[in-house]
Amino acid sequence: MRALCALFLLLVSFAAASAADLKVKVLDPQSVAVAGAQVSLFSSEKNTPIQIVTTSAEGVAHFSTLNSRGNSSAYRIQVLAPGFAPQTEPFPPTTNFFTIHLHLAAASETVVVTATRTPAPAEQTGASISTLASSQLELMQPVAADDAVRFLTGAVVNSYGQDGALSSLFVRGGESTYNKVVVDGVNITEPGLTFDFGTLPLGQADRLEFLRGAQSTLYGSDAMTSVVQVWTRTGSTPTPELRLGSDGGNFSTANGYASLSGARGRYDYNFFGDQFNSNGSGINDAFSDSLAGANVGAALNSKTSLRVRLRHSNSHTGLPGAWDFNGVELVPPLSVGNAQTNTLLGSTELTIAGPSGWQHRFTASDYVYRYFDNSPEGNTYNFASVYKYDINHVAGEYQGDYQERSWTHSTFGYRIENESAYFGYPAFPPPTHGQRLNQDAYLQQQLIWGRLSAVAGGRFVHSSEFGDIGVPRIALTLLARHGNETFSETRLHFSYATAYMNPDFTETFAGLPYYLPHPGLLPERTRAFEAGFQQNFLASRWVLNATYFNNLFHDQIEYGTNTVTYQGNPPGTLGQFFNVQKSFAQGAEVELQGRIRPRLVLTAAYTYTSTEYLQSPYCAEDACGTPLYETGNPMLRRPKQSGTTLVSYLGKKWAANLGGSFVGRRPDSDFVDDLVNHAAGYARADLGGWYAINSRVTAYANVYNALDRHYNEVVGYPALPVNFRAGFRFRIGGE
Q1: What does pTM read for this prediction?
Q2: Omega into 639 within 30° of 0, i.e. cis?
């Protein structure tokens, strides 16, 4: 017996001695740690991953309990880091610690997350996607998300005036409600409402991805024509780093911000705050916004990590209303009236790596949105209203990923979300309450077979209010030819998908003095497909993308009047929403991306969009208010022609950028007497740059609307003329 015990202890000791822990550190080209990179370890003889690990805030991936190293047991490492090129390298057999320096991605090779919910090279996803890295956002210094998104391919931004005004996004002919917005993995889109990009601050944003096309398969309701996703920075320096700065400009603009971040051992942290104030250029144009947040992570062990995020934003903006219509001042602006938006986001994320090629992510989140519109004074074009809207999303989600081989990847998940809202006019108490419980299950399979890449998936949704919905998606890319040095790879791509959007709470629950509830409303739906090609040039340093898109929108919700007597009110006297409208949009996007020099990047794009109302909204006694919705007419606020350009130089000592947005004439309305039925075309250019005085002090300046164009993005609401900000930022501690 003692001999058996001794033999057992000897075997255990031998196994422990022969086991090895491998560590991989991932750095960017400037030798800064890259957090959140997906690192896969393969045996050199097999395509089945041994382990898949995500790098810590210090950029380290830890692989444990592996066989002893030696020439007979070689490994290779694959790194997929968003914003960089995919990289695969052999793991040196003589060491247990290895450092990988990532390369800047060629235009076609950038790793993205939004298209598949896992890191993947953009060219293999079959999706149209644009990105802005942390370095570009820091250079652009956008007041809010609208000032960044407007320079991306296919984005048409419409702001109701100046900084802080309601700013909507139109993509591929869809409504401004057809965009899903996700921050730090949390849905912050108010169901059925236009998302306001003008009050989404990007302070401490690490990356922004803009996905065009239907994506309800992965993101559920609202992802009808686009998904915009933003991530917050994580701390990465062993020595705590304090960053602070301030800037100012014309129109009494002032901005100040600070952050404290770092990473030590198993923990990382980033605490930040930002305050922006501006008086604007006219009457009642003032805007202020405060942002505070935290991003804290802990590695519980080599395979398990926990991350907690908090983000609070509070904004206040004046409401001068519609008054200047394409340069014609029909009425004076309102001197009284304002809107307040208050949001709070909190999430906890638990990530578990293993066994083998498995990864598991559990997320719990809570998002609170509060909006108060106080417009006590009105005129011909602006009507008095005092309105409150409070929404709360509480959600839990599991996402599992399994990489069976290096050429196939499965993603599946389950999500449960409780949405509730209180809304109404304080003058007509009590407020109306609405609530929905949604449960979603989704599955996606990625496959690479020779020259063919395929992504196929589906989502099944059960809603307590709308019943069951299924939305599929399939995307294919084909490497048609490898090409040569001058004319490099040629790829063809195609995708087909359906998507849906749940109605707004006011549309189904109503309860207002002049609205009828309509609980029988159906979600709006779309059928979307796109096809195109990608041609690489000069060893893939330049890429030309051309994509045709075709969208058919069903069950669109419009406003009409009651057709039957309701609680003593005769037909035609109360408002109600109906699923009656149908519309169509098609067009093309042409995009050129490339590196003029290693640090000089250009993106230029042109978008053509043709839209048509196929079925007019229900109207009784001219309740629609305008003939612009009639069958056969183009859809409002969608220009046929638009274009963008973004040029960035990102050096070590200095950096500069030029952004251009070009939007053609588009149909619009004053919605009163049809004196104005269009918004004129315009061109906008933004400039920015910074200069590092030393390693701790940087001076910067930005000029917005540098051409000083006077234009309306939404007819009646003049945009801010040329404005600028300049200041300094400082860094204390860190590395």
Answers
A1: 0.93
A2: no
